[in-house]
Amino acid sequence: MKVEIIKCLEDNYSYLIIDKKTNNACVVDPSEHEPIINFVEHHNIKLKFILNTHHHYDHVGGNKELKKMYGAKVVGFKNDKQRIPDIDILLEDNQIWKYENFESKIMHIPGHTTGHICFYFPKNKLVFTGDTLFSLGCGRIFEGTYEQMYNSLNKLKKLPKDTKIYCGHEYTLKNSLFCLEHDSFNKNLEKKISKIKLQLKKELPTIPSTIDEELACNIFLRAKNLKDFSKLRDLKDNS
Ligand code: ZN
Ligand code: FE
Fold it and tell me: Which of 38, 141, 197, 209 is least crowded, fewest Cβ atoms below 10 Å from its Cβ?
């Protein structure tokens, strides 16, 4: 299994998960169709599924065209069936979704939106966290409560430490400034910041991160309790 990172729009990432044996693939959160089609056509990939973490336009914008072009099936959370365009397969919390070698555990992680899910691939040690967990940050709370977001992040914190995190946006550098402001003596954070700066200098993504790195560096995962977390989220919103 291979993950290809596809840059979309301003700062979005879509991901292609490719089974190298069959060249079958799933795309996670296609913000737009063109960059996905380009990659698929150049690499002879068979796009089978579109996996959506949530309904925002910058995560589902490519659904319609990709479905039309490849007959790919749209997979998303059942409660969002009205607002995920062209949805075919409805998922539930804790469900295992499977197709050939693709096997993902669905985790409902509300907060950014009420219907946000992540796709966790235990065998491949990867998780697609959409706009809930970013590298060095977390998503804005648009529809859910602070408590929901806090609980969702706690769920993600419990994944194995070597799990790779693929999130919806390249926000890492900007997030790092906020972390530094509130956690200025954190050596691990310093190390992580050097690493991401090096990546960005080479015009490469700072993604994937890992659960381990985020536990050590992400101020939102380091919050001691709901009250601390909520305060940080408010400060970040107003920063
Ligand atoms: Zn979003
Ligand atoms: Fe987004």
Answer: 38
Place of tokens 């007959």: 71
- How many whole angstroms separate alpha carbon 193 and alpha carbon 206? 10
Digit-coded pLDDT (tens) for 131-140: 999 999 999 9
Catalytic residue among 59, 80, 108, 116: 59
The CA 116 to ligand 1 mean position distance, Å, reads 9
Residue 35 has pLDDT above 90, yes or no: yes
Residue whose entry in the numeric block shows the structure tokens 């737009």: 32
Of 56, 80, 108, 116, the active-site residue reads 56
Domain boundaries, the chain: 2-237
User: Residue 16: is its pLDDT beyond 90?
Assistant: yes
Residue 83 burial class via C-beta count within 10 angstroms: exposed 0-12, middle 13-18, buried 19 and up: middle
Is-catalytic flag, 59?
yes
169 flagged as catalytic: yes
Q: Which CATH architecture has domain 2-237?
A: 4-Layer Sandwich (3.60)
Residues around ligand 1, an ion, CB closer than 5 A: 56, 131
